[in-house]
Amino acid sequence: MLTLETQSLETKTLLTKRKRDQKDSPHSDNSKKLKTDELEESVKKKQIMTGEYEKLKAIVADKEVYITELLKEKTQVEEQLKENQIIIDNFKTTVSEKDAYISKLLKGKSQEQERITSQEEQSIKETSSVEVQFNYLIPSMGKRYASKFELIFPKIGFLMLLKN
């Protein structure tokens, strides 16, 4: 398949031959002149088309360069996106690990708080039962034993004296 430039050159060559033939031939008629004019017009159209073709070819080349640049940029953005996604996934993993650790600590804290509360309740029950026992014992022990009891257990004795 011939390119426009090749066709243009062939047409110019043919036109040049015809012009020479017209000059050399004294018997040229109007039909040959019309054909020559048509050929000249055709050559001008082909030259215009060739010029437009070259302009379009340059535009396409520029667009191809632009597209190539965009594709490179797209690839870079996709790589950056993958790296960011990896970072986000790592952060999510770290956050979930820390959440699990916090939940473990909170569970331990609540268990410890329950244990302390139950010990306090047990201590209160034991203390209140001791007071009740002493309230019943002291009046029957008499003052003589109560003073000895105060020496041995001064705080409890003080409580007993307050209750009496």
From TrEMBL:
Residues 1-42 are annotated as: Disordered. Residues 21-42 have a biased composition (Basic and acidic residues). Residues 1-14 have a biased composition (Polar residues). This is Uncharacterized protein. It comes from Amphimedon queenslandica (Sponge).
